């Protein structure tokens, strides 16, 4: 049974997808190394605090953590951060204040190219599940990144 990234998880999938959050909250986030971080954000309507674990797609030149919305621009965590900002990022077992900024498709393209080189299977699965592809050119990748939004988190 495969998870469809275009719909919200339910049942066992939802439970399994929350396990990393429980590990981070128990200060065991170090088990993910620097490949995953947990973000804290506020609901754009409810004002409730949410915690979401996301994969780090790359690191910026200033040490930023760059993440992608693997479910596209409609992901709640992504929309919450755009609306109300980022409260904090958990790196390993430490909670740090951070700010977020959107990457343009041109900025995101080389990050995704490096992600593809480092994690080819994960990149292929991401593109397949999101229903995106490109022709292998830099221009094609830039165009594809319009559908795969990326954010850079700067730890303060």
Please summarize what this structure is.
This protein is α+β, with helices and mostly antiparallel strands and 156 residues long. The chain contains five helices and six strands, in the order H-E-E-E-H-E-E-H-H-H-E.
What does this molecule look like?
The protein is α+β, with helices and mostly antiparallel strands. It has 5 helices and 6 strands, in the order H-E-E-E-H-E-E-H-H-H-E. The chain has a 6-stranded antiparallel barrel with strand order 1-2-3-6-5-4. Strand 2 (49-59) and strand 3 form a beta hairpin. The model has no long low-confidence stretch (mean pLDDT 90).
- Class by alpha and beta content: alpha+beta
Order of H and E elements: HEEEHEEHHHE
By DSSP, the count of extended strands is 6
- Indicate the percent of residues in helices: 25-40%
Taking pLDDT < 50 over at least 5 consecutive residues as the criterion, the unreliable ranges are none
How are the strands of the biggest sheet laid out side by side? 1-2-3-6-5-4
Provide the residue-averaged pLDDT.
90
Described by the principal axes of the CA atoms, the overall outline is: globular
* Cα-based radius of gyration, to the nearest Å: 15 Å
**Helical region count?**
5
Distance from N terminus to C terminus (CA atoms, Å) equals 41 Å
Keywords:
single chain, 156 residues, alpha+beta, 6-stranded antiparallel barrel
Describe the secondary structure blueprint for this structure:
Layout: H1 11-25, E1 36-42, E2 49-59, E3 65-68, H2 76-84, E4 86-91, E5 94-102, H3 105-118, H4 120-130, H5 138-144, E6 150-155
């Amino acid at each position: 049974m495969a998870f469809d990234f275009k719909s919200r998880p339910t049942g066992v999938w939802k439970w399994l997808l929350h396990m990393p959050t429980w590990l981070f909250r128990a200060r065991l986030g170090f088990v993910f190394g620097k490949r995953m971080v947990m973000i804290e954000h506020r609901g754009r309507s409810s004002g409730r605090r949410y915690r979401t674990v996301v994969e780090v797609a790359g690191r910026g030149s200033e040490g930023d953590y760059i993440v992608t919305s693997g479910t596209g621009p409609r992901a709640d965590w992504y929309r919450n951060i755009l609306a109300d900002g980022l409260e904090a990022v958990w790196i390993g077992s430490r909670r740090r204040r951070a700010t977020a900024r959107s990457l343009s498709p041109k900025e995101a393209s080389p990050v995704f190219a490096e992600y593809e080189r480092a994690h080819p299977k994960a990149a292929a699965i991401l593109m397949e599940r999101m229903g995106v592809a490109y022709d292998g050119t830099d221009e094609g990748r830039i165009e594809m990144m319009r559908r795969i939004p990326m954010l850079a988190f700067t730890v303060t």
